[in-house]
């Protein structure tokens, strides 16, 4: 999504912070206390097996995410912001980690 961040920066005429990850301590730290009006774009979370419960690793091997890893993934996502923009309406019906809304009550 780095090219998207560059285009957003041009279109919005504002800084856009791109982080090449979407969960974990580095992302949580960047999103913990941003300046008012900050725009932070995170990498696509569908690259993570924890999003769908399964996936393919960097070596091309099929992997399954453990229940514990999925739980940690969701916990990290919950810490990242006040607003979530779902730009993938076609996946809204799927039981993916980012679509379930667990823990956002």
Structure summary:
By secondary structure, the chain is an alpha+beta fold. It has helices spanning 2-12, 25-32, 49-52, 67-78, 97-100; strands at 17-19, 40-42, 54-56, 62-64. The chain contains five helices and four strands, in the order αβαβαββαα.
Provide a descriptive summary of the structure in words.
- A hairpin with a 5-residue loop joins strand 3 (54-56) and strand 4.
- The protein has one domain (2-100): Rossmann fold (3-Layer(aba) Sandwich).
- The strands form 2 sheets. A two-stranded parallel ribbon has the order 1-2. Strands 3-4 form a two-stranded antiparallel sheet.
- It has 105 residues and is α+β, with helices and mostly antiparallel strands.
- The termini are far apart.
- The model has no long low-confidence stretch (mean pLDDT 88).
- The protein is built from 5 helices and 4 strands.
- The protein is globular, with a radius of gyration of 15 Å.
- Helices cover 37% and strands 11% of the residues.
